Amino acid sequence: MKEKRISFGQGKGSLTHNNREFMADNVDPLRTPQNITFVRQPIGEAYDQLFEESTERYNAKQKRNNRKVHGSYYEHLFGVKPCNTVRTAADKRKSFYEDVVQIGKKEDSGYGTEDFQLVADCLKEYMEGFQNRNPNFYVFNAVLHMDEATPHLHIDYIPVGHYKRGQDVQNGIAQALKEMGYGTGKQAIARWRAVEIEVLNKICLEHGIKPLAPEKARGTLEVEEYKEQRRQADELALQNVQVEAQIAVKKAVLSTTETQLEEQQKLLGDTQKQVREATADLIKQEHKLEDSEAELSEVKAKVSKAQQDYEKQQKKSQSILCFLPDLEKDRQLEMQFSEYHGELRDMLKSLVSIMKHKDGIKSVVDKMENLVIKAQDKAHKADLTIYDLRVNQQNFDKLYADEQAKSRSLSSQVQKLTSEKSALTNKYNSLMAVYRQVESIAPEAIAQAKRVVEAERQREQELQQLEAQSRKNKKSWGLE
């Protein structure tokens, strides 16, 4: 069974870091998408969800205005708007608490090792049961980081306690621990952490990992002759004065260097944010352009089809119009009518002729009436044909004009979007140029600043250890 040491400690509580709104140097951005976010809720929203109703109940009971909670519960406790870092109230309550949980070290469980995914699975299983095990610790942000050296959890929670006096629901870690059965006093948090570590131990064992207990430091001190002790004590006293002076100087240097480091990190973070926003705008504009181009293509297809239909209608109109010349060819009706008219005129020249050709007159009149009916029928059909043709032509002309207008409008829109895309592309390229310049300078500057900070911190620790050892020696020798 593989042996791995478990780390379960209190974190600084930086939601900007946890949610990768700022990318530190030790983060591999190519693996950031592998991070697992279990819950991500703005802290202001979480406070309103947990305490808003109880604040309203509390205010409703108060008769004096100066005893009421004004504004949000968060602002009442910490005096500021909700923010992404831990805030401490006047009564020592913190805006939220963070625990960082890790299994193994970089050497045996880091990226590239065979157990990298194994420890991640254990941490995921542990996190999935955290909220049920701890109902009074409201988890509003929890992330499993897979993009650093070793997988680890950041669990950010707000302790919720219930009270008989004052506001009935409050931020209170002592009361939250008590309600969950861990008792009271300074050891309550230690008892809770021991139970959680045991839960994690069981999960590790189920996955073939033997969890190791934390290492403990030990040491011995050899007592020398009193005279020698006195001499060393005097030397240590002098060293203490020198050490304190050096610590003061180093702290000043360290503070300045840390400020410069924060400025470099902020510059890089702001530039990264601008690049991300410009990239998002560019992608959004490309999508709009693609949609407009697709719509334009569809309208052009409709215009093309309308053009084809228009040409077909023209051909149909020509074929219908070919019918009209047939009316001219059918002049024989007119000629026959003229002949019948001549015959009738001859028959009606005199009364004797009328009496003689009475039957013939009736026959000719009947024939003339038939010719008139035929002529009227053909004329009516021709009128209907021409009217329908005119209406159809007008409808097609309107449809074609509408599609042409829509096509021109979309072409103009596509041209405008193309111009906007070009402007966004130029802006994006400019930002990328600035970002590359900052990126080429910032990492080295940040790395150098970090090296200075680390060296100064190490030196400060050495000086503090020397001072502590001096005091320990003096105390053991009875000189204090």
Give structural notes:
- With 480 residues, this protein is α+β, with helices and mostly antiparallel strands.
- The chain folds into 2 domains: 2-212, 2-Layer Sandwich (BirA Bifunctional Protein, domain 2), CATH 3.30.930; 228-480, Methyl-accepting chemotaxis protein (Helix Hairpins), CATH 1.10.287.950.
- 67% of the residues lie in helices and 10% in strands.
- It has 13 helices and 7 strands.
- Strands 1, 2, 3, 4, 5, 6 and 7 form a 7-stranded mixed sheet that branches.
- A hairpin with a 6-residue loop joins β5 and β6.
- α5 crosses α8 (188-206), α9 (226-321) runs antiparallel to α13 (358-476) and α11 (332-347) runs antiparallel to α13 (358-476).
Look at the structure and give the mean pLDDT. 80
Strand content: 5-15%
Distance between the termini: 51 Å
* Count of helical stretches: 13
In the CATH classification, which architecture of the largest domain applies?
Orthogonal Bundle
Tally of individual domains: 2
Uncertain stretches of 5 or more adjacent residues: 214-230
The computed structural class is alpha+beta
- Listing every helix as H and every strand as E from the N terminus to the C terminus, the arrangement reads EHEHHEHHHEEEHHEHHHHH
State the share of residues found in helices, binned by percent.
55-70%
Rg of Cα set = 47 Å
Biggest sheet features = 7 strands, mixed
Describe how the helices and strands are arranged.
Blueprint (H helix, E strand, L loop, with lengths): L1 E9 L4 H4 L17 E5 L2 H19 L11 H6 L18 E7 L2 H4 L6 H13 L1 H4 L3 E9 L6 E11 L6 E3 L1 H7 L8 H19 L2 E4 L13 H96 L1 H7 L2 H16 L3 H6 L1 H119 L4
Parallel strand pairs: 1-7
Antiparallel strand pairs: 1-3, 2-4, 3-5, 4-5, 5-6
Helix pairs in contact: 5-8, 9-13, 11-13
